[in-house]
Design brief:
The protein is 35% helix and 27% strand. It contains three helices and four strands.
Amino acid sequence: MTEPVTEPVMAVLRVKASADVDPHVLEAALTRAICTDTDRPLTAELEWVPAWKPAARAEKRRFVFVAVLRGGRRACAEELVAAVERSAERAVKRMMGKAATAKARPAAEPEVAAFWCSFRGTPHKITA
């Protein structure tokens, strides 16, 4: 077991869902499901990462979200990611049936800087 983290943890959440679902509606539903899960309470902010290539004509589509997670004082990064995966999996299966899936993983070190800038914006210095 790794030691508890107090800083936010960044994760990547991949959801396979119906191709006709609005990604912003899916993002809101996942955020609500993750933040209100009574089994593992945590705070999550999700941001949809638009695909750079057109979606294939298929029944299911893969959506990718970047998540900034914060949990209890005794939670480690792996526990937070596992809790998000469980909550997201339950939510998408309830909304779209057994064929929908959700998988989460911690963001890798080189990804964090790029994701953070896309999530929070490019840091800049304010000059007055």
